[in-house]
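Record type: monomer structure entry
Structure origin: computed from sequence
Chain ID: A
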Amino acid sequence: MAERIAERRRGGDDPRELVGEMRRSVLLVPIADGGLWSVRAGGVRWICGFTDRAALARFALRHGPGDHPWDFAALLGARIVDEIVPSLGEPAGLAVDIATEDGSMFFPPVVGIVPDEAAVDRVEEHPGGPTNRRTDEPVDRGTERPDGR
């Protein structure tokens, strides 16, 4: 996973392949106060996952209480984004390797990463027309030409 993130940050790789790699990867998620460690930023709750013990250790050195060992859960990325994120009841995504300089990657709560019901950019149909799920603002789908384009 770390290599795939590095490739994506260099401008290579298909973003869909990175999402697939995240879903197949086992990530180490710190446990705090009986739950998964997360942080809120930009109106999103970010669950923090790490690709290996070294990445988790870099994070613990910056944010942990001294020499206290960190408990963590080893979870598939797919479980995090498909099960845990929707259960939180608020906009939530996955932040990977956040303490790794030039090696972090964020998977926001959008269609194609999290289930549609948890995606903040999901368009909902209403009698008055489609709206953005998060903002309730009308969505302009553009004008379709008679030939369908």
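Annotation 1: The beta strands are 26-32, 35-36, 38-41, 44-49, 72-76, 92-96, 105-107, 123-124, 131-132.
Annotation 2: Residues 31 and 37 are 5 Å apart (CA to CA).
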